Amino acid sequence: MSSLSEDPGALLTAPNVESGAAHLKLRAKRLLLGVSGLAAIVLAWWVGVALVSRHSALAAQFGPVAAWRTLPALVTEDQLFVHVGASLRRIGVGLVWAILLGVPPGFLIGRFKRLEIALSPALQFLRMISPLAWMPIAVMSLGVGDPPVYFLLTFAAVWPIVISTAAGVQQIDTRWVQLGESLAATRAEMLWHIYVPGIAAHVLTGVRLAIGILWIVLVPAEMLGVNSGLGFLILDCRDRLAYPELMAVVLVIGALGFLLDSMARLVYQRFGSVRESE
User: Fold this and answer.
1) Model pTM?
2) HSE on the CB side for 200, CA within 13 Å?
3) Which DSSP state fits 116?
4) pLDDT given for residue 138 in this prediction
5) What span, in angstroms and rounded, lies between the C-alpha atoms of 125 and 106?
6) What is the pLDDT of residue 273?
7) Is 155 within 8 Å of 97 (Cβ atoms)?
8) Are 237 and 246 spatial neighbours (Cβ–Cβ below 8 Å)?
9) In this protein, which residues make up the domain named ABC transmembrane type-1 (predicted)?
10) Averaged over 182-210, what is the pLDDT?
11) What's the CA dihedral at 106, 110, 111, 115 to 10 degrees?
């Protein structure tokens, strides 16, 4: 008789081991495909710069090799981590303000149909205005420095949070609401035990979308008279004609944006998927 039949526990663990191995194999395959895609992009970048540099020596400074070589100097001489910290701080402040200003109206819009009908045209109108269009007004109203940057980032990030929150409220199962009302739950209990779990996944989706928008708006917003941040560093490299450093900063911006989105995705998988399953 086989060892599996002698050990009943093995019958239970064997399928789990097989599924775990299959999951690891799938993750390794996806990782390999992702790395291959990035390598293809870098290769196309290198080939393109090599072809253009035959006619212009300046083009060679925009290649991946030059950017990689200048990265250590960017860290030591240009204080890259200081600029990264300033940019991440502004992203954090803008995101917090967007959540504070976006979740309550989104909840009310999703909860009351008449309010949604009344406000939807205005919200869609404001949402379609590029945040960068407010740059002159922000500078004239708030001056130079961090305040106009915070305003632009908050304005850019608030709309996906409002829309996602409203959608989450509208998709809550009415039977849960009726159950809470039949049990004479207070407004605070209804909010905490029914609405918050019901909209958590949608709010996290809105936050992830907002992070992507924030990262795109951040670089031009940091060109509004601040003396730190990745946007400022882009301008500084341009003014010094340090094109390899400029391309290195572009790579850093892409890498940090990728990491931020990955972190937001992990948070959603950890909390949002659990809320949806409940």
Assistant:
1) 0.79
2) 19
3) H
4) 87
5) 16
6) 54
7) no
8) yes
9) 84-264
10) 80
11) 80
How is residue 77 written in tokens? 């001489």
pLDDT at 191 over 80: no
Residue 172 has what DSSP assignment? S
Residue 158 tokens, joined: 């608030």
Confirm if 144 and 200 have CB atoms less than 8 A apart.
no
- Tokens 């945040």 locate to 131
Q: Both tokens of residue 275? A: 């809320």
Q: Is the pLDDT of residue 258 over 70?
A: yes
Beta strands in 17-109 (DSSP E): none
Average pLDDT over residues 75-97: 90
In terms of pLDDT, which residue wins out, 243 or 78?
Answer: 243
Amino acid identity for residue 24 in this structure:
L
Two tokens, residue 256: 């940090």
Q: Locate 240 and state its tokens.
A: 């010094």
- Which one-letter amino acid corresponds to residue 96? V
Q: Residues with Cβ < 8 Å from 201, sequence gap 6 or more?
A: 168, 268, 271, 272, 273, 275, 276
Residue 99: which pLDDT band, with cuts at 50, 70 and 90? very high
